[in-house]
Write a structure and sequence with these properties.
By secondary structure, this protein is mostly helical. It has three helices and no strands.
Length: 83
């Protein structure tokens, strides 16, 4: 699962607001960019996509839509492996 940095920052901002914390979206975007860079460039177990990964962009999807797409992908994979 993947989402744009902007979508991820907006989701994080919404989570923080529910906790009574106010953070500027630009600050969250910078934090996410730095965390992504650190995660993908670290020497021990860098965060990388598997070669056969199925990537689902969730930037514009509601939670239920994400779940439905995942379930559909699982069904497709099962069908391919059973044939």
């Amino acid at each position: 699962m993947d989402a744009s940095i902007e979508a991820r920052a907006k989701r994080r901002q919404d989570e923080l607001k529910q906790s009574g914390v106010s953070v500027a979206i630009d600050e969250l975007i910078d934090d996410i960019k730095q965390r992504d860079k650190t995660d993908t460039e670290r020497s021990a177990s860098p965060l990388l996509k598997a070669k056969d990964a199925i990537v689902i962009d969730t930037s514009e999807l509601e939670f239920d839509e994400q779940v439905n797409i995942i379930l559909e992908k699982v069904k497709e994979q099962r069908h391919e492996h059973n044939n």
